[in-house]
Amino acid sequence: MTKALLACRGLDVRYGERWLVRCLQLEIAQGERWALVGPNGAGKTTLLQVLAGVRAADGGAVELAGRPLDRWSVEELAAQRALVADRWFDPFGTRALDTVMAARYRFRGAKHATSGNGQDGERLARQCMAAMDCEALALRDVRQLSRGERQRVALAAGLAQQSALILLDEPISHQDPRHQVQVLQQLSQRKQCTYVGALHDINAAARFATHALLLTGDGSWHAGASHSVLTQEHLSPLFGTEIVQVLVDSQRVFVSTGGIPA
Amino acid sequence: MDATVRLRELPNASFLPMLIAAAVLCLLAALRFGSVEVSTGALLHALVDRLRGGQESSVAATVLALRLPRALTGIAVGGLLALSGALLQSLLRNPLADPYVLGVSGGASCAAITAIAFGAGAAAIALFAAGGAFAAMLLLFLLAHRALFARDAPLEQGRDTAILLTGVMIASLCAAALSLVLTLAPDGRLRTMVFWLLGDLSGAVSMGVAMAAVFSWLLLLSLGLRDANALNLMLGGEVQAYTQGVATAQVRRRLIALTAVATGVAVALAGAVGFVGFVAPHLVRYFVGTNQRVVLPAASLLGAILVLLADTIGRSIAAPLQLPVGALTALVGVPVFLWQLQRP
Lengths: 262, 344
What we know:
Chain A contains nine helices and twelve strands. Chain A is α/β, with parallel strands linked by helices. In chain A, helix 4 (119-131) packs across helix 5. Chain B has helices at 12-32, 40-51, 59-91, 104-117, 122-143, 145-149, 159-184, 190-198, 207-226, 228-235, 238-243, 248-270, 276-288, 292-316, 325-342. In chain B, helix 2 crosses helix 3 (59-91), helix 5 (122-143) runs antiparallel to helix 12 and helix 13 packs across helix 14 (292-316). Helix content of chain B is 74%, strand content 0%. The chains are: A alpha/beta, B mainly alpha. At the A-B interface, helix 2 and strand 6 of A face helix 10 and helix 11 of B.
């Protein structure tokens, strides 16, 4: 058995009085891509924050590479995991490139050329931007970007941090159809990276993820390989609306058929 | 119009040397002008003589002995206040923050005015001011304990506001106590108090104290610069900065303590000089953007220049009458700031 990169051992997560997740047992191996799927308010973002070590668990433990999260220093954690949020604070004008370069804070002072923060750092930052189709925006002020463009800059920053695990909060929520495909394709091409991403679009989740974790929001959960978890039998009760599965060019596609009264 | 608005390639490289040159010019002006005017040549001659350890007793030498420590103190005070203001505006992400917003100078003022009321000398007043500043800082760390030392650090919302409000409350408390002391104080000492409260550099300072002040400014500035990169990241949100490797809680505690010390030293030296700490960072950001590695030293230098200019004008314009520097900083600063606001 391969050693898990990220493991939840009886993890409890609470938001206020409500238990979002109870006794979550999960092992995520390197190279796996997990989708967090669940209705609004089910706790996907909160769980991501716990996995990132930003929020404390309310019970149980999260282990990264075999060591509990709270025994890592802030700096060590930055080398292990990145978090791409879906909200950004841009109080002052900054060039998009500088925003991506900032993600390389953990390399400051690094002497060797490959991981340095100087010219090599900038080249790598630009490569990450190119992968997320936003290199043309490098010199633009982040406050003047559209939400979709800003999101791709944030994704590029997540890649530029060069950590093994990347946590994604709704990574394609502001993307047009072409960029949805492109972003997820580029991410899954990086085989050495492990992803845990909250995804609203079930079809995107089914294409991107190797595994899925379903969150109902009342503490219960269901985890497994995506083809066995992302099914109409699981998804319809999860979202409380009729979802059927059809095959288009031998690809599974989920369609919501919940009726809207005419 | 071109739709792709690019940020100006910032003239960072040339901005700092320009400010340093301006500061040197202002220092020369501060030594030259005043109730007695001395030629630059005589001044430089006296300066060289002094550096050689000579005991020349020309007019220029006397003027230099009086004006040099005062000018250096002015530089340190302006530098410290502007550094403090720049750090607080970034840290609290609030453009209205200034060095006095956390109540540190309130504590200093209370203690200093009480000392004046009891007839203390200049050195004792400065000591009391420093002690009051320190007490106010302790109170802040105690009262804002939850916001400053919370676990789950990066997530907790409204912590900046909590720290800011605690500081404002301490400042208000000090202001109330201060007005009480002012009402009860003997009439003969009110003038000294008003000058102190406005901020005044006319208290005689020895060359040693002035050098120590400049040294402490440079020391605190270099300490602040060590966290400049972290501060850059924190501007973009605390969760983001934390996941990118910034120990946000530690940086915040460190920098708040640093601003408190900087403000305390400045206030102990010159009283509550207003406006510089607020306006210098604003002006600097307009020219060089928000990279804290440039903003901190540039704001500091501009603050030094502003106080030096204001004090020189205050000494010269109505000579032999001396106007308090605190009144002049605002008189000079407000028009400059408004002019900047009007520009597109």
